[in-house]
Amino acid sequence: MSESDTHAELVSALMRIADLESRLREADETLDAIRNGDVDAVVVGGPSGQQIYTLENADRPYRLLIEQMQECAVTLGADGAILYCNQRLSALTGIPRETLVGRHLQEFVIPNDRAAFDQLLTQGLNSRRSAEFSLIAAQGENVPVNMSVADLPVAEDMPYLLCGVITDLTRSRKRTDELAVANEQLATEIRERRRTEDKLQLALDAADMGNWDMDLLTGKTTRSARFDQIFGHADLDHWTIQTSGDLFVDDDRQAVAEAFAAAPVNGTVDLEKRIRRYNDRALRWVQIRGLTYYRDGQPIRIAGVVSDITDRRLIDEQLRQAQKMEAIGQLTGGVAHDFNNLLMVIAGSLDLLESRAGNDAKISRYLSTARHGVERGAKLNQQLLAFARRQDLRVESVDIGALLRSFENLLDRAIGETIAVTITDPDDLFYGRTDPHQLETAVLNLAINARDAMPQGGTLKISTHFRTIGSKSTSPNNATAGDYVVVTVSDTGSGMPQDVVAKVFEPFFTTKEVGKGTGLGLSQVYGFAKQSGGFVSIDSVVDEGTSVSIYLPRTEAPLSPNKADPASDEVKGQGTILVVEDDDDVREIASNMLRELGYMVFEANRGRSALTVIDSGAPIDLVFTDVIMPGDIGGIDLARAIKANHKNISVLLTSGYTAQRFQTDGIDEGLQILRKPYNRVDLSLAVKSAIGSGS
Amino acid sequence: MTSGKSETSTESTRYKLRLFITGSTPRSTHAIENMQKICKENLEGQYDLEIIDVYENPEATRDLQIIATPTLVKILPEPLRRIIGDLSDKERVLAGLNLAPLAPRKTV
């Protein structure tokens, strides 16, 4: 053995000693630590793996956790025997822990839930599982719980233990119940709200309105489908308070923008403006109404409705027009009535003058000229009355087609050669309820207007057709729905702008040169159609022509015509006549004419004074009375009183309004009316006839 | 190689440490607190510390022959060294980690 070998062995031995010393120290330290209680657990290796054994007090934190927790913790034997439980389970069951341990947990499970519990006990090993059931608690009440368990193996040949945590579900159930109630409440509110919204939608639909809502905070606008439809599905995505005016026509844009800009301050928007509808470029009137909503004094949204009011405006316009015509009619009727009295005075005076003038040719000529003037005045007055619908209509069932055909020659002459006249026969035989003479006049008036609208020539068409009208389209004309025979006169003339069309039916409105027209032609047409129970419509396009349609109620059975030829010679008579007339001049003329005809005459200026005369016992054969008089007794009342109390006295009525519909309750039958102005011949015949029929 | 009085902390090797504990037992929690403190004061930025709960992972004790908890094991730098207890004896821990001279043993 060499020295170096010996040295190497020594070094190796020293190193082994150092290593052993180190290990020994570590083993010492470990032993010290265990002996001093510096460790919590020891690890023991075995064939079945490393086992950890905790030392005393090591599980104290876990015990504390278990005892502190609000859930019940239990360890159960395989048969459900309680091996350990925390204080919470004792509190829940109301049984001290000392007695609780050893008992079986299923004793506390309500009978109905026992099966669920047993299943929890026996269900597969090594699995975590849970079940819900109810425990019988301290006061005998049932407490819903959830129990979750895990298997705890103890030894190979022993059954597993079960570690379980039992959670009291009372509060959570209660919360669930409360939540369910709250949910139900919410659902009810939602249903209620939806119902309200549905109702609102229904109301909007019924009103044909769209709705809109501008959120001022986000700048977002929502609109209903009807809104978009009204605007013709324009690109409205950026329709906000700032761009509100963009949808409207140029003239209205500024006003709309201002109305919306002012809405947050004013609190409302309410406007009726025109739009150019996007999809068909139609000009429509829309109405927008809205309200501003505030939060803490700040405007946050503006919302409202929109509707297309074009049709309504049109109908309003027509209604206003109809009302205006009605008012003018009233006025015209009044004027014509007074005018008739004036003509009456003049005509009567002329008659009286003539009887005194002898055979002076010059005087006769002047009288004749004056009488001619009166006749023209009377004719004009007839047209005024026609417009005012106060003329006497001789209504019968008229074959319109035949009437127009028989009229053709006359029309040709009246119209002239440069204009082609076409009269189209109707497809069928149409009877209209009307006065044939007035219809002729009306068509003639229209034809003359057409001629004047076509100075360079053109085509005049007269056609008849049948039309049924529903209530909606007739309402502006105040005509009732029904079947109508329509006579249309159309020309290819100059046409009229809308503002002229609006006025054409007004009396004395004319576009013709001074002296060429009276301005009463269309007024006659209008009044006549109305009085016949129909109406007139007019369409006119500048430079294309005008078309006027007269709507007359259709009728079936022709009424038998009833005509009498007027006599032309005056008939003198005898007897006593009471003339009742409020107009002094007319009364004087009438009285004088009657005296010249051979009658004795008394006079009265009121119905009541006339009754006084009659009741005084004066020998009166006939009362000749005006219909319209001031005071409480008019002509009709007077006639009734006489019929009732003085059967031997005859009555003859006279009026400027001969078309008045008297209340004929049988008593008025046989009453005769003399239309003003009348001449001596008319008067003599009427008086003679009235006295004759009365006696 | 000895337990190395002469070795210093200037060595560039990172410390690889493993602390075995048992759940949240009192000494285990102490050991964690003490270890964190010692590492922060002496090994800032140059150590990797694993804390192993032997309840969760009992087999992890086998390789390093752990027989009780808490036990701190210095895996690197070598030599491997086990320090048992709650690590409240700071000097002993530092000595075990070769960071300070070993004080004379109190008991044998």
Give a structural overview.
The complex is a heterodimer of chains A (695) and B (108). Chain A has 695 residues and is of the alpha+beta class. Chain A contains 20 helices and 24 strands. In chain A, strands 13, 14, 15, 16, 17, 18 and 19 form a seven-stranded mixed beta sheet that branches. In chain A, a hairpin with a 6-residue loop joins strand 10 and strand 11 (283-295). The longest helix of chain A is centred in the middle third of the chain and has 48 residues, at 310-357. Residues 561-565 and 659-667 of chain A have low confidence and may be disordered. Chain B has 108 residues and is α+β, with helices and mostly antiparallel strands. Chain B has one domain: 3-Layer(aba) Sandwich (Glutaredoxin). In chain B, 26% of the residues lie in helices and 24% in strands. Chain B has a four-stranded mixed beta sheet, covered by helices on one side. The longest helix of chain B has 17 residues, at 26-42. Chain A binds chain B through residues 15, 18, 22, 25-26, 28-30, 32-34, 36, 38-43, 45, 49-52, 54, 57-62, and chain B through 1-3, 21-28, 54-55, 58-59, 61-62, 66-71, 79, 81-86, 105, 107-108. Strand 1 of chain A pairs antiparallel with strand 3 (68-69) of chain B, so a sheet runs across the interface.
Keywords:
heterodimer, A: about 700 residues, alpha+beta, seven-stranded mixed beta sheet, five-stranded antiparallel beta sheet, 24 strands, about 45% helix, about 25% strand, B: about 110 residues, Glutaredoxin, four-stranded mixed beta sheet, 3 helices, 5 strands, globular, disordered N terminus
What's the short story on this structure?
With 695 residues, chain A is of the alpha+beta class.
